Amino acid sequence: MSETRERSFWGWGWADQFQDRETRKGFGQQVQGMLGFAPQEVLDPPALEAIELDAPRAKPPASLGFCTDAPEARIRHTYGRAYRDIVRGFYGDFRAAPDLVATPSSEDEVRAALEWASDEGVIVVPYGGGTSVVGGIEMAREEDGRAVLSLDLKRLDRVLEVEPVSRTARIQAGATGPVLEQQLAEHGLTLRCFPQSFEFSTLGGWLATRAGGHFATVYTHVDDLTASVRALTPRGPWESWRLPGSGAGPSPDRMLLGSEGILGVITEAWMRVRPRPVFRATATVHFREWDDAVAATRALSQSGLHPTNCRLLDRREAALNFVTGDGTHVLILGFEGADHPLEPWMVRALELAADHGGTCPKGPVYREHGEKSGESGSAGAWKAAFVQAPYLMNVLVSLGLLVDTFETAIPWDRFDALHADVVKSVRGAMKEHCGGGFLSCRFTHVYPDGPAPYFTWIAPARRGAEVRQWDAIKAAAGEALARHGATITHHHAVGRTHRPWYDRQRPEPFAMALRAAKRELDPAGILNPGVLVDPEG
Amino acid sequence: MSETRERSFWGWGWADQFQDRETRKGFGQQVQGMLGFAPQEVLDPPALEAIELDAPRAKPPASLGFCTDAPEARIRHTYGRAYRDIVRGFYGDFRAAPDLVATPSSEDEVRAALEWASDEGVIVVPYGGGTSVVGGIEMAREEDGRAVLSLDLKRLDRVLEVEPVSRTARIQAGATGPVLEQQLAEHGLTLRCFPQSFEFSTLGGWLATRAGGHFATVYTHVDDLTASVRALTPRGPWESWRLPGSGAGPSPDRMLLGSEGILGVITEAWMRVRPRPVFRATATVHFREWDDAVAATRALSQSGLHPTNCRLLDRREAALNFVTGDGTHVLILGFEGADHPLEPWMVRALELAADHGGTCPKGPVYREHGEKSGESGSAGAWKAAFVQAPYLMNVLVSLGLLVDTFETAIPWDRFDALHADVVKSVRGAMKEHCGGGFLSCRFTHVYPDGPAPYFTWIAPARRGAEVRQWDAIKAAAGEALARHGATITHHHAVGRTHRPWYDRQRPEPFAMALRAAKRELDPAGILNPGVLVDPEG
Q1: What are the φ/ψ torsions at residue B35 (nearest 5 degrees)?
Q2: Distance, CA of B459 to CA of B35 (rounded, Å)
Q3: Cβ A511 vs Cβ B240: under 8 Å
């Protein structure tokens, strides 16, 4: 978390986490058996100094002292962290770089930047942690002749107020997960919103993209943790009252949540926090048959037990994440809370799992505050793999492998058909475009009416053709989802990558309403154009 | 539930529930002691045939065979069921009557009505159960020169599909609570959305107004039970995909939920249903001190136990509803579910209550499916009073008493100050405008970050001046809420009555966005104008 540590300019996370060539080569040999195909020659990324950029189309105005056109800042604000971003960065292609980067230290500076950009017709792309996997922060130069300003909120990273009685905290949008959790921990509190990007992504980014969080049930999205939001629009500040609930018209917060920077720049929010967990119950349940595992997970989702963790990994996913290699499907089950021991909850959950053939050979583990985490078992392996997984993309890119994850949500009654079609379509696309590939599935969140399945695929790349290959496989996945009425995204957002399927999914009158709202609040059309809707339809 | 039974044209509910003059007089004498003031002479409402209406400003078009200008239909569609509606009806004042009433039997007929009205510039007021308490369906003639069509959805009352695996059902908007529950019961399922208006209000009305339901925690609003919504707008149908969850842009459903008929006419929705409860645990907890009762309820709301019922009644509310007259504040606590016995939940809940001085002299009651309801105790008294309460308004009007309820939600940290101010302000207003009055408070729903308090007040009326008196006391209540940042409504909606405070509460850019959306979808401005926003600000 130290600020002296440097982030990779082209790949996921900290630069120092990228291993040397020999280590990566060894890793490639290690996973070859599981994947069923061989990595290619190991390559290295270019030095930052070697990157060539087009000249900026605008100069930083004297009035915005926090604005720069320095090449390094432009390079670092070019892409999110999807595979197609990382592979382009790895090859030194930063043609999509913004012209300017601004790092305001106050809301007044955010306002000044918006006013200047509105007046000058400069596009503003709000920038949080830069971890979008859907092209949410990339403004390709060819799309629009206007200059682009990347507005990085990272200096707005304070927890401004903590209200312990109501368990709410006012937090600035630019705070990353660790930075806000550290400040909350001083009060014995936690937000417990842990998207996989937690280490780098920001509260503002989570709100703008409706990030998925820690809780597998009930409080699945950051939406559910939000008491009020404040944003600056070009027409003025948008701030709702801090309320536990309301029925006063359509929810203003729910219109900002998921707005992906097209209506305004989120600057802060009142979030629902809670004491750090005191009681924890965890269990790892194994299933021989996938259908049984799914049925057990459905029963749990409809039980009213509300597990914190209810993540089902298919046997490939379990192997990929070093949870087990015994060929079983694995349900990672957990309860946590600060009020009461959780045995009755876990006992009933394990009964439900057993009803569907699930076994828990090691039994449940119960812990109280202060006890050692004991997470050396399957749950621990999963947690370690979860945090490390995004780094894997850097390595796979260097090994000449394609990789992606995509996720969705669908009613239980349609899940089996969707799953079969995704497996067939994505494997078929990998075969066609790459000669083969690996596909695994897990559930990240579950609801009484359906699961949120999450797929990972890996395939051999043809060097230089990776983006075209990736786009083709992404399209096969998107089409399979659309055919079954599954959402194009449960918690990765829409951005630019998901637009073709989002456009078919969202009700047309809603798109008309959203376009009208955007024209009203952003008359100059400067805010992140191309995301969610086009100004004229 | 038989359709041969007739609803009161002026008051709440079934006409046959309105007692004779002697019974009402007796009731008045009975409650006099509790209220601290005497009722007036008992009056009777006029006969329906004696009501005089202005001539309709439009004729039913030949193309709409389901449209009428018959006086009785116009009278029955004039008002909601707030006190100010009932008192005007009681005195035979139906000047606000719509010019036409349409009862379409299909979506095609809804579309035809919208097209005709758009072409002719006739205002359309979508009408569900006619139980609005905020002027949501009343289009005063003096406000707008245009003719008004009341569009009654009651013939669209079918459960069209049931999906048992995903526990969802597609239900038409015009189905009332009993009508949809009866159809779901054939499948062993239930929606469990029981607003106090349940007997007469409709699914479409619940969605359009974000009704509050049965569950005191987690699933507090109908919003949380909604998987997708379909509405007809003047620009075409708005239908979201049936999904358990999604992060694809701002939620389209959340923009229709609470839209109060200004964007489109909701025609059906996929709702999340569940098996009828098998296990129930109930308890009645008594507190000597209000602050202790509030602290216990807060602890429960933050416990993660998620009680189904967690309704705190202050001592006046407990007496008014015949729950207890012993001067204690009463917490009605309940858990229910179809999966597992609920002892561990209730045991811990009662420990928390006891930590704050709560006593449960009769102990908790546990029941399984098939056992007698056993609701002869406090919980049963509460339930009976809950359903009957709206009928009380008819009686009080006839006795010359003013009465209203208003509700809100506020963070826990501000509740004490709000409560003190409401008590002072509303009692002060009753004193000033009526010479005195009665005020009680309960919590209908609770959240980890705050309660939803619900207030009831009763005061002596001056006959003929009731609406002015009522408006003055309503204004005192609304101002008290606004001073403390409490929402103007947790689940009664905005309508026309709450506009002054809603306009201060909602963020101005959100109002701009909503106006722009309305102009886009309803270019003729025919849909329920005056509710939520005015077209031009």
Answers
A1: -75, -35
A2: 8
A3: no
Q: How far apart are CA A495 and CA B248, in angstroms?
A: 9
A contact test, residue of B217, B241, B268, B345 with most A CBs within 10 A: B241
Task: Check the CA dihedral A70-A73-A75-A79 and report its sign.
Answer: negative
- Chain B residues in contact with A512 (beta carbon < 8 A): 235, 517, 520-521
Residue with tokens 């978390």: A1
* Closest of B5, B93, B80, B86 to residue B396, by C-alpha: B86
- Give φ, ψ of A429 to 5 degrees: -65, -40
Tokens (6 digits) for B414: 């501000």
Q: Which residue has the tokens 């529930």?
A: B17
**Whether the Cβ atoms of residue B353 and residue B334 lie closer than 8 Å to each other:** no
**Over the stretch B208-233, which tens digit does the pLDDT of each residue have?**
999 998 899 999 999 999 999 999 99
Residue in A229, A232, A340, A504 to test binding to B, most B beta-carbons within 10 Å: A340
List, for residues B42-94, the tens digit of each pLDDT value: 999 999 999 999 999 999 999 999 999 999 999 999 999 999 999 999 999 99
Q: Where are the beta strands (DSSP E) in B246-308?
A: 265-272, 274-275, 279-287
| pTM confidence score | 0.97
Q: What would the two tokens of residue A56 be?
A: 């900026």
Which residue intervals of A77-176 are DSSP H helices? Answer: 83-90, 107-120
Residue B411 CA to residue B452 CA, distance in Å, equals 9
To which residue do tokens 């998107």 refer?
A478
DSSP state letters, B307-361:
-SEEEEE-HHHHHHTTS--SS-EEEEEEEEESSS--HHHHHHHHHHHHHTT-B-T
Taking only the tens place, the pLDDT of each residue in A194-226 is 999 999 999 999 999 999 988 999 999 999 999
Q: Is B515 on the interface with A (CB under 8 A)?
A: yes
**Chain A residues in contact with B514 (beta carbon < 8 A):** 249-250, 517
One-letter identity of residue B203: L
